[in-house]
Amino acid sequence: MSAIDKVRERLETHPELSYRVKGKTITVDARSGSGFSVWLTVNRHGFTVGFDGWHEEFGEESKALEAFAFGFSDCCRLKVVKRGNTACSWTVEGREENGEWTEDSETGLFFFPFWRKKCVEYRQNRVIVTHGRDGNARVEDTTRGA
Questions:
Q1: Please, is 64 exposed, middle or buried when counting C-beta atoms within 10 Å of its C-beta (0-12, 13-18, 19+)?
Q2: Whole-model pTM?
Q3: 1-5 long-range CB contacts below 8 Å, 24 or more apart?
Q4: What's the confidence (pLDDT) of residue 14?
């Protein structure tokens, strides 16, 4: 079974998530304006996983699928830097056990309107909740029953 088939199979349990497959890429659309799209492409040398404009290459299918799923976790957020209306950099952040956010990796444009006012947005999908309000670790699928 291909990586895209594995993702499609998992998405069958989430009918509220909209996705499309085009060639060797599967894209899950953001559920709201405060979220981000998550995509996976199968290529000659492995896999590319992306969250909106951020992307990273993976050689192993298991690592790519893990990164893809991470995009739906409440332990993942995407920091988007905009100049005017133009998004120019995307940084994946992970939440540590102590609740602090740490930057993981960044993708950015070489050319952007640097003269425009800088604005930072934080986006999350929160389909999979891993911590309750009490701080105790748990896994809860927030799309069930929605």
A1: buried
A2: 0.84
A3: 2/42, 3/40, 3/42, 3/47, 3/61, 3/64, 3/65, 4/40, 4/42
A4: 87
